[in-house]
Structure formats: C-alpha cells, structure tokens
Amino acid sequence: MVQLLASAEALTVLIAGESDLLRVRSALRTEAQNVGMGLTAATKLITAGSELARNIVRYAANGCGRVSIEQIHDAERRGVRATFSDDGPGIADVDEAMRDGFSTADSLGLGLPGTRRLVDEFSIDSQIGRGTTVVIGKWSR
Amino acid sequence: MLRMGTDLLITLQGDLDDTTVEHVEHEVTREVARVHATGVLIDISGLAVVDSFVARVLARLVAMIRLLGARTTVVGIQPAVAITLVELGVPMRHVRTALNAEQGLAHLRGVPDGPAAR
User: How does pLDDT run across A46-56, given as a tens digit for each residue?
Assistant: First the structure.
C-alpha cells in the first residue's frame, strides 16, 4: 500500500440538502482541474461524488453530512481524494451493499458498486447508529 | 423548448439540480400532450455530468413520451459522460440515441438508420 500524502488544506463542503450536490460537483471539478486530471477521469470522479452526496441527502439522519476534498500525490502521480461522512443510521451489511443488484430503497440496485467502478480507490466504513464514511480517490494520468 | 412542426426540441445544459431535472420532465411531458407532438429531440451535449438520478429521469421521460404516442431521440451525449454511464451501470437500453441533432431528427422522421447509427 502506497503511503498517500495529502496536501495541507482540505476543503470541506457541508451536505444538507439536494442543492448542495451542485456545490459538491463544483468543488470536485475544481480540484480535478488543479491536479491536471483528464476530462474522462474528472467526469467519473464528479459523477461518483454526486452519487455519494445524494446517498447522504437520501439516507443520512436529517439528510446531513459533509465531504472533505483534498489533493493527494505519490512519487509520480497526483490525484483527488474525497471523504464523505454522515452520522446517519449506518449500513447493516456493507458486503451486501457492495454487491451489484443490492437495493436499499428506491434505487435500482446501482449505488455503491457502480460508484466504486468509477474511481481508483474506494473504501467504506459503516457502523450501525453511528454513521457511514466513504473515501474515494482518483488519479490523474 | 422549441417547436418545429410536430417535433419538440429540448436542450439541456449546465449543471442541473434534481428539482430542475424533474421540472423539465414535467414540462416536456405536458407540452408533448398539449401540442400533440410526434417526435421529441433531447439535446444533452451541454451536460458535462449525468449521474444516475439524471439518467433515470431521462429514461423515465422517454418512457412517458412513448406512452403519449411520440418518439424520442437523445442526442449529443459527451464521450466522457457515455463512458461514465456505462461503468456506473445505468440501464438506458430503451433510450434511442444519436450522435447529433441531424441524425436525431432523421430518427424521429423514421428514416432508416445508417450502418453507424444503431
């Protein structure tokens, strides 16, 4: 596992309603541009972020959460990492939620597996009654 | 929303929030019924990001327009958006698409597809 170095400042966007999705997408686009990410990779990153932000609005307690966006780099690449967290109900079975076809509410069973396919790095940590944190990372090529 | 004979032309652009997308869906459906449109061309070349919600509303809109007896063609999907939607796994198989407005209009008029159009 490569040790990722994050630059000092991370940008935090609060997610409290559907209109914040625009701010999340815009912040991800800006950071993708800052690290010189190509259009296709940036589009995947922004779309993945939009999916995760919408999950927070739909499922988290009061539809509230936050995303922290920062630049990352290793020896030869730069990228963007975004950490989405909420204090919502949590996901009972994370392994099941990560399987294609699993559906919680009105989604068509896309959601997390589809989102994971769009990014280079994906991790999820969820505790019942405590909340869920999803971290995604995308490298510029 | 533009009217051209019995066709409606709709252009979506910018970064759309969910409310706007659903508003467009509602308005277009009503307009198709009101003017007895036979064809609807939806140009999404101005959308840099189409997430699963927007894609789902688009697919639903196409289904509703079909119930109203009209045909729909979605044109101008940006390559990065197409790649993203396929990887995301959004089912849009029943949505008829074309590369540009010209091909899209040909679809609406029932002109047989060329070899590259399908």
Answer: 999 999 999 99
* Whole-number average pLDDT of chain B: 90
- Domain B2-107 -> CATH class: alpha beta
CA of A116: which chain B residue's CA is closest?
B88
The answer to whether domain A11-139 has CATH 1.10.3720.10 is no
- Show me where the domains of chain A are located: 11-139
What pLDDT sits at residue B117? 41
Q: Which residues of B touch A118 (CB under 8 A)?
A: 84, 87-88
Give the span between the Cα atoms of A65 and A63, in whole angstroms.
7
A-chain CB neighbours of B89 within 8 Å are 100, 110, 113-114, 117
Q: How far apart are CA A40 and CA B96, in angstroms?
A: 23
Owner of token pair 């919502």: A88
| Residue of B51, B77, B92 best to disrupt the A interface, most CBs of A under 10 A | B51
The residue with greater pLDDT, A4 or A18, is: A18
